[in-house]
Amino acid sequence: MTLVSETIENAAVGVGIAETPQGLSAIHHPGCAAAIWRRQPLDDFQTWINDLPVEQLPRARMILPISNVHQAVTHICNTYGTPHCDERERLVDDIAVLASLFADLIPTSHIQLRLDVVTTSICPKFHIDAVTARLICTYRGTGTQYGISTDGADPRRVFTTPTGSPILLQGTQWPDGPKSGLLHRSPSIEDTEETRLLLVIDPIDEQVQDRPNPEFIH
Question: pTM score, two decimals?
């Protein structure tokens, strides 16, 4: 694992770049504000998901226990007519694995899981999320962009997370160490024909873990 960092007083700005999923634990290292599991999507999978009609891409927002993720994402794929094939199973399995990794690193039994299909620019301004931590993985399209800010202004240097590589980011509610000086945003895709498929995972505190049923957005 490598740690890319700059020195800013009283701020965590390092980004851990790992070649294995275990490397996401860099988020707990002093001065590290984010960690990326850098991986190369399989060609067959990437071609399949890039070529899927937009209406067949799974989308949802739900709160659920980690143990239910695989079943719930399978249901979502069925709802949107995502074709049954090895690539679909790989997608479902990968989402379940990332949810489990997240829950191990940011201890929680429940998560909010979002699958967003994006055809326009969302969250185009650089920001820090109002959560403990957030995992984002872009399965299709341009990945999340990030950079270091010394004074809250937009970063001078902007980096793009590779497609298919999960990034784990500290939020404003991160309990330990200095505040994050790393800002991120969704890439601008205005006036393009790009479609993005995002997985977003947040921890859920105990006060909302007892909601009756996951909410699916159709």
Answer: 0.90
